[in-house]
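Escalation from tier 1.

The customer reports that the assembly of two entities below gives different structure tokens on two consecutive runs. Tier 1 could not reproduce it. I'm attaching the input and our single run for tier 2 to review.
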Amino acid sequence: MRVLIMGAAGMVGQKLLSRLENADTGLGNISRIYLHDMVPANTASWSGESEVLVGNIAEAAEMQKLADLKPDLIFHLASIVSGEAELEFVKGWQVNMAGSWAFLEALRQHHEDSGGSYVPKMVFTSSIAVFGAPFPDKISDEFLCAPQTSYGAQKAIIELLISDYSRKGYMDGISIRLPTICVRPGKPNLAASSFFSGIIREPLNGVEAILPVKDDVRHWHASPRSAAGFLTHAASMDLSVLGSRRALNMPGVSCTVAEQIEALRKLAGNDVVSLIKPQLDDHIVKIVAGWPRNFDTQRSVQFGFKSESSFEEIIKIYLEDDLPKASA
Amino acid sequence: MRVLIMGAAGMVGQKLLSRLENADTGLGNISRIYLHDMVPANTASWSGESEVLVGNIAEAAEMQKLADLKPDLIFHLASIVSGEAELEFVKGWQVNMAGSWAFLEALRQHHEDSGGSYVPKMVFTSSIAVFGAPFPDKISDEFLCAPQTSYGAQKAIIELLISDYSRKGYMDGISIRLPTICVRPGKPNLAASSFFSGIIREPLNGVEAILPVKDDVRHWHASPRSAAGFLTHAASMDLSVLGSRRALNMPGVSCTVAEQIEALRKLAGNDVVSLIKPQLDDHIVKIVAGWPRNFDTQRSVQFGFKSESSFEEIIKIYLEDDLPKASA
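Tier 1 run:
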């Protein structure tokens, strides 16, 4: 089986590669992995054959090249993040929507050219940003998409495209709506959600962190380890069980920023917590106010997706998987 | 005010034009109406200034030309219908999605060029085909979009685009999800829903009509007169009341095919009803099985949208508005 990872240089892409190497994912034999991103992806955690590809997913010609690889399994993790898509409207739509549509069209053409035998499997990382306030206490599997960012609208549109291309049999796709992934290793990024990780990661590394929202903000989290697990589970599933609803809310942990901070205090102490500096940022406050806080993820749990059950557990995973590397 | 109607040659476009001429729509003075479609639109029912434009909405250059008119108010009714979009996949996406996105982009560019002063109002006719089974007894205003046709997916995507462009202030848009419009005057079309009108219209005109589904199929209807009323009401509303949810389920009448037939019997007698010939069509049965049956349209009713309250009333409107013309 030949696998393509789009967005392979990103944090989730790298976690996925490591999981494909180290865990029994039920995916069978992978003969080759194509790693695509804007910058060369690190292949250190993969011992099999690989090919590093660099290019821009906003360009139809680039998407044609990727489709021409005729991968059996595609992990589509590539996008610009919410904060950037909000600031750069045209770029956001080109990268996060137009490129993906061009890719689906190129895949469909290969399906047609093959007489219908080429039906690639695709796992697309969507986001809880497809939802917008007002919300019920818990968002059900039947709640409407009402995005309040361009990023969320772009994700919702690709979900609809993947569902329709799959319904027609051109591909076999699933969109998994990731919780905010926390604790992200590495540096802050332009995502409006970046601080949810920053207030844990920076203090644990002895660095101050800005908290740009009030601590009663409730949000929905899962670890990078869970994100990689969602992806491989989705890839190994028989997707026909999804029927016509191929976008799934992933399980996660609902907690407030105050609860995040208390979990950090319990595991790392007051001195670490004292490195969190509250400083409201209206731009971030406004974006985050439209985001979901809690879910009732019956379908994804029924289909075997698993996450952490407390934020403490999420911090422990950061300590196990990432902190040693950061200080190494 | 300059008004553009896209899809002006179609049945709803013509009903809209007639309503703009004859009813007090609260829209103020219309200095000129641009009537765009694939074929020249009839202007007979409009006594003011008008301009007939012919072109294909799948072409970006055509969309640029329409945006260059800088209309103050746009009624976007143009699409290919569900049955055709299902049979011609590529054409469906080009006409029903790509063209509309190109149009929004061209309007946004005019907004930018005007220093932000040009903010056109747009009323887009979406459809209950954005929904897909399984359904609750009544679909609420917060129920997910899960289209089971390409047409439904295309409508849901344009809704998301219009919401995002409106959120950013580039335009001021609303998407109204029309019930199946019934009784359509004129000839059958390629829409999978065409028979809902055909089984009433053809018998009333002394012609046999095929019923391609079982008579226990329940569906959601409104008259052409209501459709025109929804459009002008949407155009005259202050859309800020919608908040970030700019797609609205329109009110309608929920009834079974058997109830449609009984209403026809009551108004026109057994001889007319005997012209309905049941003949199952698996293609139609399959599409219709995924369609909504009933709604709880709290929001649109709250915002002043009005429909009929029985199918008998819907037939009477056909007799009043359209049958005389058909036999004239």
